[in-house]
Design brief:
By secondary structure, this protein is mostly helical. The protein has one domain. It is built from eleven helices and two strands. It has helices spanning 15-22, 26-43, 47-50, 59-87, 89-94, 98-123, 132-157, 159-163, 189-192, 199-205, 208-237; strands at 53-54, 57-58. It is globular and about 55 Å long. 34% of the residues are buried.
Length: 238
Amino acid sequence: MGFKNLRRQRPNSNHMFQFQLIFEKQWLHLLALTGLIAGLVLLGRIDSIQAGSLWDVGTIIWLWLAVAIAIAHQVLVWFCWRTQLHWCLLTRLLDHTGFTVYAVLFSILGIARVAVVFFLAAANRNTAPVELAVLRILALLTAIPAVYLFYSVKRYFGFKRAFGADHFDPSYRSVPFVKKGIFRFTNNGMYTFGFFLLWVPGLWYGSVAALAVALFNHLYIWVHYYATELPDIKRIYG
């Protein structure tokens, strides 16, 4: 399915109602994010999380850079999804290239989100009080469901749909939910298994700081699900 024949929807005439829908459940997003950041601030006082550096950049800087990219990534998705769904903003401004622009920005931040966790883990290596060989076995085991998730997305789901194409192209909204591959076991494979990938660097390098950020990311993506994606699913699919 492409976007050449994208159907432009007319936005709802009630602008105040539209504005409210853009921010639907975002109080939950803000509240949960505040709690998660507070937790990281407390953890950041632990010596093992402060230890180390990479390229003369300290671990704490890498940690907060990883957090900042994760927040930017999820705020981008919220803004693009909601303004497109209720205002058709991107396709009205950019026509059929609106989705492409969004997908490129999504991909850049998504790759950076993973890469910076690897850099953080390398900076803070060997700080976990567990035998490194054990942690590396766990890293390999953790990577298996993550790899299977991305294989399932490519084969059965499609990356366009994973990016949120149903917010842009109404033809996606009649496509049934996928029940193949890893999606046989859960409807939320991306959040349940995809984010296992972010645990791999901390386990492989034995990094307490990277494991803390992996936990932050895994909890924060579920905030996105309940505050942004689930309300949108209900509005798109009924």
